[in-house]
Write a structure and sequence with these properties.
42% helix; 168 residues; mainly alpha; Arc Repressor Mutant, subunit A
Length: 168
Amino acid sequence: MKQKNLRPFGQQREYTTFDTEPMFSKATEYAIRAVIFIAQKSNSETKVSLQEIAAAIDSPEFFTAKILQKLSGKNVLITSSRGRTGGFFMTDAAKKRPVMSVLEVMGEDELFNKCVLGLDKCSELKPCPMHHQYKTVKKNLIALFERKTIAQLAAEVNAGNSFISSES
């Protein structure tokens, strides 16, 4: 087994890129990227195809189809239409939804209710060693995902300030 290079105790780690484990499941990462892309490229008149979405977010088509099916359930976030001019689109109202709504549909909003160390009985009365410090971080993350809208993320990508694909 190869041993990792450990930095000396107390030395700060530089975070220039996100080279650690992802915060969310791969499905949720793709879901967020998909709604950003759909918000960028669609409206009730202009739809995008499964193939376009999968290519834009670097996701396999079959996997993307399953994610889009989940996101379009009850037309909560995205809407799909069949036929020659069919595809996926988002209404203006859906684009104004917070990113947290994607996490909720994908079932990842529970992440914010869990102990950072994975302990079942962690609470204010019986905290884990990270509880009080993580509580502040968690509160800020929740605020970020509740405040930031899908439309805002799409606008950032459209402006060239950020990207949703490794091809960008």
